[in-house]
Design brief:
Its cofactor is Mg(2+); Mn(2+). Keywords: Hydrolase, Magnesium, Manganese, Metal-binding, Mitochondrion, NAD, NADP, Transit peptide. Pfam families: NUDIX, NUDIX-like, Zn_ribbon_NUD. It catalyses: NADPH + H2O = reduced beta-nicotinamide D-ribonucleotide + adenosine 2',5'-bisphosphate + 2 H(+); NAD(+) + H2O = beta-nicotinamide D-ribonucleotide + AMP + 2 H(+); NADH + H2O = reduced beta-nicotinamide D-ribonucleotide + AMP + 2 H(+). InterPro entries: NADH_PPase-like_N, NudC-like_C, NUDIX_hydrolase-like_dom_sf, NUDIX_hydrolase_CS, NUDIX_hydrolase_dom, Znr_NADH_PPase. The chain contains 10 helices and 16 strands. It has 354 residues and is α+β, with helices and mostly antiparallel strands. The chain has 2 domains: 22-168, Alpha-Beta Complex (Nucleoside Triphosphate Pyrophosphohydrolase); 200-312 and 326-353, Nucleoside Triphosphate Pyrophosphohydrolase, CATH 3.90.79.10. The strands form 3 sheets. Strands 1, 2, 3, 4, 5, 6 and 7 form a 7-stranded mixed beta sheet that branches. Strands 11, 12, 13, 14, 15 and 16 form a 6-stranded mixed beta sheet that branches. The protein has a 3-stranded antiparallel beta sheet with strand order 8-9-10, with no helix packed on it. Helix 1 packs across helix 2 (37-46) and helix 8 (303-311) packs across helix 10 (335-353). It binds 1,4-dihydronicotinamide adenine dinucleotide and magnesium ion (MG). 1,4-dihydronicotinamide adenine dinucleotide (NAI) is lined by residues 200, 202, 204, 227, 230-232, 264, 266, 268-269, 272, 274, 294, 330, 334-336. Magnesium ion (MG) binds at residues 230-231, 250, 294.
């Protein structure tokens, strides 16, 4: 182990080096499992398994409306499959979703997929739930009752399982494709074309005019909910071009001073890579022209309005009770929440400094 952390950190710190080294070895281990089927098969012997039924994760109710995410050891999984008269070979349908610092590999396995192409019939949901003392609950429904780490892991697992389920055939030969052991790709045996899991890039932009920020809503959003402007990148576009086009398309404005801030994998409705940007409108050009085919409404909101909305708790319970709904913002889990929060913090700091 080198005394210095190299490019990342020039400090002579033992802990810092240790941290970096753990991360690097873990990354290399996961890479090996993706590349080497035998290594991955071996990792399945000692790994743990997250179960899904038709893309709904197995969850267990804990106290305070929270959900825990049970994991099964290899032996527990074999026992479960045995009870349903399934061969343990079925474990090889699982996909690799990560590993611990100690290199315990984590897999996700869906035993309830209904796809006609599958050679395995779905196992009965309620009998599995009884056996496992848990419930298979749609991720969208459960997401606010999970901790951030669990939700992120389940997002990845569901996205990967969904991708495999919907990419069973080669689009060139029409033949069934075969998953590698880790599930990081599928190969067509007849022409050797390799298919990799994909995410759609989406730009999400918080437009400001200096004092206010622009938020919009679609008719499908819960009542009162406004978010930043989002849109799928078109093929051939750069992120900058996608931001400019989406803002022009949706609210009829031209933006400048584009700044990238962060990104997030978002599983709904399919896998997207959300690329968060901040931008300002051109001076004197703030009049919004809403594109009604895309949005129900869009408006400028003051710092006070947004700061008050950020403090509001009980997102869903408040909505159902009242007809006149105040401004609601996306939940903490969504990158839009963090972009809006960061704008409020920057504005508050600069108004205090002034
Ligand atoms: N995590 C977060 O904070 C947020 C995430 N989002 C996500 O961003 C995504 C995009 O936002 P929208 O305003 O709906 O996009 P959008 O403004 O591009 O409009 C959606 C339309 O774009 C077309 N489209 C083009 N490429 C597409 C593709 N690859 N997949 C699906 N539709 C495609 C379809 O006609 C679709 O109806 C949504 O899936 C939404 O879940 C949106 C806001 C916040
Ligand atoms: Mg949009």
């Amino acid at each position: 182990m080198s005394l210095y952390c190299g490019a990342v950190c020039r400090r002579k710190s033992f802990w810092c080096c240790r941290l970096l080294s753990t991360y690097v070895t873990k990354t290399r281990y996961l890479f090996e499992l993706k590349e080497d089927d035998e290594a991955c098969r071996k990792a399945q012997q000692t790994g743990v398994f997250y179960l899904f039924h038709d893309l709904a994760p197995l969850l267990r109710q804990a106290s305070g409306h929270r959900y825990l995410v049970p994991r099964l050891s290899r032996a527990e999984l074999e026992g479960l499959l045995g009870k349903f008269r399934q061969d343990s070979q079925r474990i090889e349908d699982s996909v690799l979703i990560g590993c611990s610092n100690q290199h315990e590999a984590w897999f996700a396995l869906d035993l309830g997929l209904k796809s006609t192409s599958s050679i395995h019939a779905p196992l009965p949901k309620s009998e599995m739930e009884a056996e496992l003392r848990g419930s298979f609950i749609a991720l969208r429904q459960a997401v606010f009752q999970l901790n951030l780490m669990d939700s992120s892991l389940l997002f990845t697992a569901q996205a990967l399982l969904r991708w495999h389920d919907s990419h069973q055939f080669c689009s060139r030969s029409g033949q069934p494709t075969k998953k590698n052991m880790a599930g990081s790709k599928r190969v067509c045996p007849s022409n050797k074309i390799i298919y990799y899991p994909q995410m759609a890039p989406v730009v999400i932009t918080l437009v400001t005019d200096g004092a206010r920020c622009l938020l919009a809503r679609q008719s499908s959003f819960p009542k009162g909910l406004y978010s930043a402007l989002a849109g799928f990148c078109d093929i051939g576009e750069s992120v900058e071009e996608a931001v400019q086009r989406e803002v022009a398309e949706e609210v009829g404005l031209e933006v400048e001073n584009l700044r990238y801030s962060a990104s997030q994998h978002w599983p709904f409705p399919n896998s997207s890579l959300m690329i968060a940007c901040h931008a300002t409108v051109k001076p004197g050009q703030t009049e919004i022209q809403v594109n009604r085919r895309e949005l129900e409404a869009a408006a400028w909101f003051s710092l006070d309005e947004v700061a008050t909305a950020l403090k509001r708790k009980g997102f869903f319970s408040q909505q159902q009770q009242s007809d006149t709904v105040p401004l609601m913002l996306p939940p903490k889990l969504a990158i839009a929440h963090h972009m809006i929060k960061s704008w409020v913090e920057t504005q508050t700091c600069s108004s205090l400094a002034a």
